Amino acid sequence: MKSFEESIKELEQTVQSLEKGDLTLEQALEAFEKGIALSKECNEKLDLAEKKINILVGTEGELKEESFVAEE
Question: What predicted TM-score, i.e. pTM, was given to this entire model?
């Protein structure tokens, strides 16, 4: 399985090849599908990382660990 950084780099390369505009229609469709899959993979990795993040909160001189909840 690729790391998040590897997936992002591959996604960036895919976008660049699409932006050049020199792909055939079939190649562009394949690249687009690949880009969508990579984007979904990156989002899943970010969601998983977010769920793993915990924060330390100071309350009355004591540290307490709480799960991080992202604000939307």
Answer: 0.70
User: Is residue 14 included in any domain, yes or no?
Assistant: yes
Number of domains in the chain: 1
CA–CA gap between residue 55 and residue 11 (Å, rounded): 30
Residue 1 CA to residue 66 CA, distance in Å, equals 30
Asked whether residue 28 is domain-assigned, the answer is yes
Among 1, 42, 39, 40, which residue's Cα sits nearest to residue 18? 39
pLDDT digits (tens, 9 = 90+) for 44-72: 999 888 777 766 566 666 767 767 666 65
Domain-embedded: residue 38: yes
